[in-house]
Specification:
Layout (H helix, E strand, L loop, with lengths): L5 E4 H5 L3 H11 L3 E5 L1 H4 L12 H15 L4 H8 L3 H12 L4 H19 L7 H7 L5 E4 L5 H6 L4 E4 L7 H4 L3 E5 L4 H7 L9 H9 L4 H13 L1 E5 L7 H12 L11 E5 L9 H9 L4 E5 L4 H38 L14
Length: about 350
């Protein structure tokens, strides 16, 4: 079966081939919206360690589970073989246990872990900073950590988290960081795991809870009308994106309603094909284009996007100045009562 996904390399962008023109048009129209996953920030220094990968977080959840529910080797092996979402479901049940001693101790240990490894993120690379400071009207992050906010704290970006009433009219006139899966500081302040979405049950609750109606509506609108740029996203069991892509089809929108969605594929084996089952998964999320970026190219890619946005900004300024000059020239001719030929008054677009 042929999978309907276009696959490009970073050299295609550098050589101004098809994906370059599409990206430039998308940025010019303010239609490109980044969604950042754990791959964007993992390994960055935090308050007392480094931002974990999803595998490292899974190991921590397992450690906490086995600490309070010791198992023999056979049972441990069975539990360790479960998916991140399944392990998270077990942890959530333990976290919400009615046994006060167990409940409070796990809450304290997990809160300490979250504070140490997800707060106070610093030393973000210069290329990542350039990418984040492209002047995005808003961007999404699936991460709990504080990396994005630390870079954009002086740019007047507002942080949007789940389970809060949203004034969409006002927020869409602001610059926003939309944290779909929660936020470490909201979790630490409240102790509520709704601000730290881990498990399938939590995903489904986030999608269906009336408090998140506006947030999910915002995401649905973007999924059907914007061009999404996925960076650092594993997209394993991301039920919110499966939901919005399915909603797009149920609402009668064609699969072509947002053709220019891009997935950045961290390409550690550029000489081999991307596994077909992974491409099928991407197709299930409505992704149409894959950009293969090697580890040695990723910093250059971030800087490349920054240069593209600067080029678009310069073009807009130049166009605006040209149009202003034409209008002033037109008014001057009128004042002098000179004959005006319409063909000479073409506005630059």
């Amino acid at each position: 079966m042929k999978i309907d996904i276009n696959i490009y390399t970073f050299h295609d962008l550098l050589n101004h081939n098809k994906p370059y023109d599409d990206l430039m048009q998308s940025m010019q129209a303010d239609r490109l919206v980044p969604i950042l996953g754990s791959g964007f920030t993992k390994g960055l220094p935090s308050k007392a360690g480094i931002v974990p990968s999803s595998d490292s977080l899974k190991e921590k959840l397992l450690d906490l589970f086995f600490e309070y529910f010791p198992c023999d080797d056979t049972e441990r092996h069975k539990i360790k073989s479960k998916s991140f979402s399944q392990v998270s479901d077990c942890f959530i049940d333990l976290f919400s246990s009615g046994e006060k001693f167990t409940n409070e101790n796990i809450k304290d240990e997990f809160a300490t872990y979250m504070e140490n490894f997800y707060s106070g993120v610093h030393n973000i690379s210069s290329s990542q900073r350039e990418f984040l400071q492209c002047g995005w009207p808003y961007l999404y992050t699936l991460n709990y950590d504080s990396a994005v906010e630390s870079v954009l704290k002086d740019k007047n970006y507002e942080v949007v988290v789940p389970y809060r009433d949203l004034n969409l009219k006002r927020l869409k006139e602001k610059h926003c960081i939309i944290k779909l899966h929660g936020d470490v500081y909201a979790f630490l302040q409240s102790g509520n795991l709704c601000y730290c979405v881990l498990s399938k049950k939590q995903y489904l609750k986030t999608i269906t809870d009336p408090k998140n109606k506006d947030l999910m509506s915002w995401l649905q609108d973007d999924y059907s009308s914007k061009d999404i740029l996925f960076i650092g996203c594993g997209l394993e069991n991301e039920y919110d994106f499966l939901f919005v892509d399915s909603s797009k089809q149920l609402n009668g929108l064609s699969e072509d309603s947002s053709q220019n969605s891009y997935y950045i594929y961290y390409d550690e084996s550029p000489q081999t094909d991307i596994p077909a089952d992974f491409l099928m998964d991407l197709h299930g999320y409505g992704i149409k284009n894959v950009l293969r970026i090697t580890p040695t190219e990723i910093d250059e890619f971030y800087c490349f996007i920054k240069k593209c946005t600067m080029r678009q900004n310069h073009l807009l300024i130049w166009t605006s100045l040209n149009n202003t000059a034409i209008i002033l020239f037109y008014l001057a001719l009128r004042k002098m009562k000179m004959r005006i030929y319409p063909i000479s008054l073409t506005i630059v677009t």
